[in-house]
Amino acid sequence: MHPKALLDACADLLEQVLRLDHPADAVVSRFFREHRSLGPRERATLAETTYEALRRKLYYDHLAPSGRGPKARRIAILAFQGPRDFLKSALDEQERRWVDECDAIDPKDLLERHRHNLPEWLVDPLKAQLGDEFWALSDAMLQPAPLDLRVNALTDKREDVVHELKLAGIKGNPTPYSPWGIRLADKPALTKLDAFARGAIEVQDEGSQLLALLLEARRGEMVVDFCAGAGGKTLAIGAAMRNTGRLYAFDVSAHRLDALKPRLARSKLSNVHPAAIAHERDDRVKRLAGKIDRVIVDAPCSGLGTLRRNPDLKWRQSPEAVTEMTAKQDAILGSAARLVKPGGRLVYATCSLLPPENETIAQAFSSAHPDFEQLPVADILDGLKLGSSGLTTGGEDGRSYLRLWPHRHHTDGFFAAVWRKR
Ligand SMILES: C[S@@+](CC[C@H](N)C(=O)[O-])C[C@H]1O[C@@H](n2cnc3c(N)ncnc32)[C@H](O)[C@@H]1O
């Protein structure tokens, strides 16, 4: 594609994405469906430029007025993810000079907001938790996330899959925390690989794998994944159960559960039972009350731990939406807890970085449910021989909750709390 045409396409796509009225990934997918002739490299440039524009939106909004032409084109030029020579061949002389001036700006001379590129309402709660480390987090949030895979523990060994990928020209290393994980060096297409087709690998962030591990689901048990979505954790848990017992995958979104089905077919698991529920107090939930060995609530949340992948969330979320979310989280956790039988385990998890969606929900649950004893996450990680150092916070000794941060652990941001029903 001619550089000018690709830059125009970037500007068209950005014009749609920057309205922020739909999730960026949905807008990008629709754009690709409407422009079927785009090749894989062009698609990569379009997607990466879009995500870069969303990541550094405040910075680019600050620079854009000094350029000329439609705003979406100016942002597309500033955020363009491709060789500089290629970009410049799409520009006129004046635009080229402008790009050079912008490239020469020293980040040290910028206002804080143009460096961290976060909305103000998010800055204070993050600084309150991290102090000076806030800058390491905000830098990490401006980078794309690595591509992590989870090896299907039912069918394959991690070292064999690493070797198989290597033979296919794909470099990957075992992840530091999850025994199932492989972190790839690049972002290759995976769907044509035999390992993918036969269900030996799934794309899953290492942090998400750790949440599934915290459930410690065993052979023959009755387990519920209460907010299963497209089943990232369901598939990991089903394999950990060695395809025995019964694993219910509940969700209020039948559409999301539909996306689980092809993954389930590839995985060779036959112990998973997806079921759409109307709400958290659905009759199906009531019928299983007190009968379940382990329940995981991967609650709907602000998603702010995933800003590397979903940078539009920081512009589409608001303090009001977070407050609404916490009421939902509280209600879902309370209902899901009724499923757990005496001696059973309950895991509450989010991919949020905000205490009101995390520690506050967990503490309120503990206070309201004296029949649930909180288990220190660090004890579980140590028991699994995964090592807990630096992964947990809270309680007198900092061992209560799992707290993963992109800049420390190179995973998405995750929280988890665990209880045992007395
Ligand atoms: C964080 S996502 C789950 C991701 C999934 N566990 C995974 O690992 O791929 C949260 C899910 O909760 C679902 N949800 C929202 N409200 C719910 C409710 N009241 N009961 C059950 N699920 C709900 C959403 O549809 C969404 O799929």
Automatic annotation (TrEMBL):
Family named by the database record: Belongs to the class I-like SAM-binding methyltransferase superfamily. RsmB/NOP family.
One Gene Ontology MF term: RNA binding
Keyword S-adenosyl-L-methionine attached: yes
InterPro entries: MeTrfase_RsmB-F_NOP2_cat, MeTrfase_RsmB-F_NOP2_dom, RCMT, RsmB-like_ferredoxin, SAM-dependent_MTases_sf
The entry's keywords: Methyltransferase, RNA-binding, S-adenosyl-L-methionine, Transferase
Annotated binding of S-adenosyl-L-methionine, by residue: D251, D298
Pfam families, alphabetized: Methyltr_RsmB-F, RsmF-B_ferredox
CDD domains assigned: AdoMet_MTases
Active site, UniProt feature: C351 (nucleophile)
Source organism (scientific name): Ramlibacter algicola
Lineage start: Bacteria, Pseudomonadati, Pseudomonadota, Betaproteobacteria, Burkholderiales
UniProt keyword Metal-binding, yes or no: no
Source organism superkingdom: Bacteria
Gene3D superfamilies documented for this protein: Sun protein, domain 3 (3.30.70.1170), Vaccinia Virus protein VP39 (3.40.50.150)
Protein name: RsmB/NOP family class I SAM-dependent RNA methyltransferase
Any single GO BP term: RNA methylation
